[in-house]
Amino acid sequence: xxxxxxxxxxxxxxxxxxxxxxxxxxxxxxxxxxxxxxxxxxxxxxxxxxxxxxxxxxxxxxxxxxxxxxxxxxxxxxxxxxxxxxxxxxxxxxxxxxxxxxxxxxxxxxxxxxxxxxxxxxxxxxxxxxxxxxxxxxxxxxxxxxxxxxxxxxxxxxxxxxxxxxxxxxxxxxxxxxxxxxxxxxxxxxxxxxxxxxxxxxxxxxxxxxxxxxxx
Length: 216
Fold this sequence. Notes:
The protein is an alpha/beta fold. The chain has two domains: about 5-140, Response regulator (Rossmann fold); about 145-205, Winged helix-like DNA-binding domain superfamily/Winged helix DNA-binding domain (Arc Repressor Mutant, subunit A), CATH 1.10.10. The chain contains ten helices and five strands. The protein has helices at about 15-25, 40-50, 65-75, 90-100, 110-120, 130-140, 150-160, 165-175, 175-190, 195-205, and strands at about 5-10, 30-35, 55, 80-85, 105. A five-stranded parallel sheet has the order 2-1-3-4-5, sandwiched between helices. Strand 1, helix 1 and strand 2 (about 30-35) form a beta-alpha-beta unit. This is DNA-binding response regulator. Keywords: DNA-binding, Phosphoprotein.
């Protein structure tokens, strides 16, 4: 039996945190291990708790969620961040993804949708609000390709855009998970990108993959 996904909740409203904690507590495979009221507290709690996933509000006092996400991704690269906010303003959407958030969700998402995003993030999979995905694809400015992708790397990129984890890609392609990790690392380097989310956006923007069938 696998361990539950350990989650840190970050929001400046205690009522929101308690509501999220209540709903997520219904999922036996999710454990809320801590809370924080702003980005600065999030950095402290994350360093102490090393959660698997951080659910991060963006508009908070002391330190906003985008700044906190950028610092957290450098401090704890194995911890994924889900942006959970009430806005689809372009600078917030773009800022969160550029900072390293793996997913972008709105606060009106159902508890099941959020739980799915948390489990997906723990597997390294992308989940985006549909409108956020459209705006990101429209506005995305990818890095300059340094080398051509191999046919296998192109397939892996397509599968990343379709929301598959390394484990799922390995099963789909009949190779080891370590081989997939190597392909992912190489294609990110060739594309001048920093994350799977950016790789997915590149695939959508360039036409390598389409929004049809993409997990949003």
